[in-house]
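During the no-cost extension, the postdoctoral fellow (Dr. R.K.) reprocessed legacy sequence entries with the updated structure-token encoder. One reprocessed record is reproduced below for audit purposes.
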Amino acid sequence: MEKRQLTRVIAIAAVALVVFAVAIFAVALGMSQGGGLFGPSGDRIAIVRVTGVIFDSRSVIGSLQRYANDDRVKAIVIRVDSPGGGVAASQEIYQELIRLRVEKKKTIVVSMGSVAASGGYYLACGADHVVANPGTVTGSIGVIAEWYNYGSLLDMAGLKPELIKSGAMKDIGSPVRPMTPEERAVLQQLIDRMFNQFVGVVVTARSGKQGLDEARIRALADGRVFTGDEALENGLVDEIGNERTAILAAAKLVGIPGEPVVVEPPPQKSYTLIDLLTQTDVNEITSKGLPGGSPSGATMQFGYIWK
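Re-encoded structure tokens follow.
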């Protein structure tokens, strides 16, 4: 009898342990989704943040894909606080926003923070609705390439670079010699092509708003920045308000009544000097781009960035 009772106690304890483990997992999952004990239920709105210089698109796209197949997420608010960044990285985030709208039927609303300029404005063109604060710095529609030429320093030091190349343009933009007129013309063609890509995206997103057409958009696209209220007057944004304004606008667009349930991905890990010194795979850090650095390692960078 005692042996049978002991077996029963062990079985009950095992079941209790399994139930406890499942409960802990459910709590952790719910909290990671931004909800309560077992996560929010019903329709909800997700927030994805784009902060700082856009060196790389992977983390933002990863956050977006987190909600791509979640039928409960009806809308995604993109909170932008960025001066822009790399051309391709900005384009990739924009393309993912368009994909979510077209393929996944997600409503996208952009909430502009202090700055949403150049590449930050580019990706805002992928939204259904754009909200800016009155004092948001936005616009800066254009592209820039910048690098340093230190050839004169080499001359002062008595150093002379040696170069073997396969073609006349292989070392275009070399930082150790003056640029030729032919090289400048080639780079200007690249800049112009990237600029026209930017203008095309703005035309697709904003034509017809406040009487905007391509001619008017090109007149605004000289690299200047605008305050949020000025951008509204020019048809570059849809509404003045803060992050909550954008959340409520998203809820209204998708028909969520009352106070919407809001979820958000867990914060990205921030890297410190200790991480850099102790990380076994430093590529994980350097590929994300350290402050002031270029993740590609190239001396010349083309940027949709407000300088």
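The first strand starts at residue 44 and ends at 51. The chain has one domain: 23-267+301-305. The remaining legacy entries will be reprocessed before the final report is submitted.
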